Amino acid sequence: MAKVKDNVMVMGFSGTIGKQLTFRQIGGETFVSNYQKVPAVPATEKKLAAQARFGIATAYARRAVKDPELKAIYQAFVKGGQRAFNIAMRDALNAPVVESIQAENYQGHVSDQIIVRATDDFKVAAVVVSIYNQAGDLIEEGNATIQKDDEMKWLYKVQQENAELAGSKIIAVATDLPGNTGSLSLIAELIQTNLPSE
């Protein structure tokens, strides 16, 4: 894709001419590229899934830039020829990752502390911690609190007594602004597989 400079004939123009050239407006500038033909070969399932994911991300970015508060958040990270739309779309395409659960101080008592480390390409919006007993029954669930000294660190204070600590499972789920999630679970010092999802 090429940027159009100092050409008053096409400045501000968008659309396709004779199935030859396509003009687009990006960040107030005009870009031109070759016309994209419809492929003759049917798309694979993998390609269709990627297109659907891209479509969802595009829809989110459009909503985000219409929301003054969200747009301002993304606009603060704009560099060069980027727009808030680009940052929002990238955010929507990448799920957060829960890197670790530190539960050494969890002894099954109220006010015990569990530390979760979670990252995202843009921002982790929330972290929810759930605790299950060995039988799989939910003991408690609640929001962790982000720590001011480290934005990757989230603190969860235990609310319920857990007399059967052995075999209990702790699950931490991180969510970003577009709603993507990533999770990690820990059972008796054993960390399970990280499970990012959309």
Description:
- The chain is an alpha+beta fold and 198 residues long.
- It has 2 domains: 2-93, no CATH class; 97-191, Immunoglobulin-like (Sandwich), CATH 2.60.40.
- It is 20% helix and 37% strand.
- Strands 8-7-11-12-13 form a 5-stranded antiparallel β-sheet, with no helix packed on it. Strands 1-4-3-2 form a 4-stranded antiparallel β-sheet, with no helix packed on it. A 4-stranded antiparallel β-sheet has the order 5-6-10-9, with no helix packed on it.
- A hairpin with a 5-residue loop joins strand 7 and strand 8 (138-143).
- The longest helix has 22 residues, at 45-66.
- The radius of gyration is 23 Å and the shape is elongated.
- 21% of the residues are buried.
- Residues 190-198 have low confidence and may be disordered.
For this entry, give a set of tags.
Immunoglobulin-like; disordered C terminus; 3 helices; 37% strand; 198 residues
